[in-house]
Write a structure and sequence with these properties.
CATH class: Mainly Alpha
Radius of gyration: 12 Å
Order of helices and strands: HHHHH
Structural class: mainly alpha
CATH architecture: Alpha Horseshoe
Number of strands: 0
Distance between the termini: 27 Å
Length: about 80
């Protein structure tokens, strides 16, 4: 499954697609993604959950606010071209 791929950019593509679908049934997968090891992936999951707009995501998003790892949000395309 793509969400278990070791490359965060591949996992990001799945999360982005789930967000585009916008179905609240994807909430469990997106909520789990908030605990991923890669900070940019977690940020992407939070964005997609917010875009879906399901109020049931609020507790998971609130918990994610305690994530203090600093990041510059980098698109997978930019990351792939970085040296």
């Amino acid at each position: 499954m793509a969400l278990s791929d070791s490359r965060w950019a591949e996992r990001w593509r799945v999360v982005e697609a789930l967000g585009r679908i916008g179905n609240p049934k994807t909430m469990r997968t997106l909520t789990k993604a908030l605990r991923d090891q890669h900070v940019n992936f977690r940020v992407s999951a939070a964005i997609e959950l917010g875009e879906i707009g399901d109020p049931n995501a609020f507790p998971a998003l609130t918990d994610a606010l305690s994530d203090r790892e600093k990041t510059q949000v980098i698109s997978p395309t930019a990351a792939a071209s970085a040296p």
